# Entry
Amino acid sequence: MCSLTITRPWTPAVSIIIPTYNEQNHIARTLSSLLNQDYPAQLTEILIVDGGSTDTTLNIIHSCLHTRSHTPCIRILNNPHRTTPHALNIGITAARGEVIFTLGAHTTYSPNYISGSIKILHQTGADAVGSTAVTLPSAPTPIARAIARVLASPFGVGNSLMRITRTRTIRHYTLSIPDPIPADTASCPAYRRTVFEKIGTFNTALTRNQDIEFNLRLRRAGLKLLLTRQIKTYYYARATLSQLFKNSLENGYWVIKSLRYARRPFVLRHLIPAAFVTATLITALTTPFLPIARILFAVISGLYITADIISSILTAHSLRHLHLYIITYPTLHIAYGIGSLLALPAIIKPELRRGTGSGTTRGNWQPDKRIPEAGMEGKMPAIS
# Structure
């Protein structure tokens, strides 16, 4: 008598964590994409960890729920610290799923985001999987469109596969990248619960870039993070050059300041803007005194301007707006580089090098590995 083996799909309970603070302009769109997933609602819980929003964020969340039936379990948790890493850790502690998603409130998600992540985790045995980020303009203006496309181009963000796998943003240029592929970071990953048990939670000292540090810590522990194009996040970029400059300045600042709290919390591409700004400033300031400085300044400036123009031509959706791309690239790079340089004083103080202080230095911070066991049994309230 022959036997028949039936392979059943892996359908674990999942927890989705979304940090929020004054997200009235985005949260409805984000929630709508999550409430329309093709994964079983009864196996899904959404944990909204709010930092005390003073706008209509919470009202919008309640409104979204009351207009739908058969929604996943949704809980609202309080985040008195207001920062993202605290919110994520609060959510992780409260999560009851076997797989935990760390998502953003400025982002929407493809309908297969949960099911696709679970499928890849199951097929590959990976510890975490995240998506490529499709960067969209947040306003119907030429400059907003330019910013979005610059943030998805190799010259804009380097070898960040999470960003540049959106090949259609680059004119006449096709990237051939395996799928899925190991990566140093990914957009809005899904983690097996065991990841947090092995390496701890997010570093609460890092107001920004906590995801970069966590994913690097994951890989250094011998765990596997995969990036896939089979699922997608849709991220809305800044709408103006001033917003881009401020955001890039903060990102550059925190990527260096993170050295106070973590071991090598970045990769090489994060240092290139600072190196570019430093080299340009030094050669420019020494040009009156050193003939070699004039040559170096001309070479550095000439190479950058050439790369800027070529990349702008390849990236621009219309040559009529080419000038917007030509100024957007240096806005991104220079702001990021300046931010990194402004952070240097924070990491060269003697007390920080010794790792002493009140729990905010590398020497003191320890990841919390006390994660409750998974379990979504019993009747769960729709919202609290």
User: Anything to note?
Assistant: The two ends are 54 Å apart (CA to CA).
